[in-house]
Amino acid sequence: MIGQPGTRLVEINWVANPFRADKFAAAWRPAAEAALDYGATSWALLRSDEDPSHFKQLAVFEDKVAWERYWLSEEISEARAAAAGLFQIPILPEWHEVVGAASLAEQASAG
To answer: Which range marks the domain in which residue 85 is found?
Structure first.
């Protein structure tokens, strides 16, 4: 999920408005998954166990240009508009460079 060293992981912290977290999750999941259609190699939408109104959206892209094609696309712009009122703003993407990552499945196949 994390990506190879040198790839870029973008994280967005979403906060659902009170009593709307379930609706937000249902509405935003397809939009988060659509990142794959715009060049992401993986994606995740996580919901906090501690505070179910908090979500993290993660996606791995080779570069910010691919992210911008996704985030500024008509499809995702319309999804944000359709979900308006379900989440708090502002929405600020935070970028991370993958320095190192592995999984047990990768280690098992390499060994």
So the answer is: 8-99
Structurally, the chain folds into a number of domains equal to 1
CATH code assigned at 53: 3.30.70.100
* Distance in angstroms between the alpha carbons of the first and the last residue of the chain: 20
- CA nearest neighbour of 43 among 64, 53, 29: 29
Put simply, whether the predicted model's pTM sits higher than 0.85 gets the answer: yes
* 111 pLDDT higher than 70: no
The answer as to whether 108 is a domain residue is no
Residue 15 has pLDDT above 70, yes or no: yes
One-letter amino acid identity for 46?
L
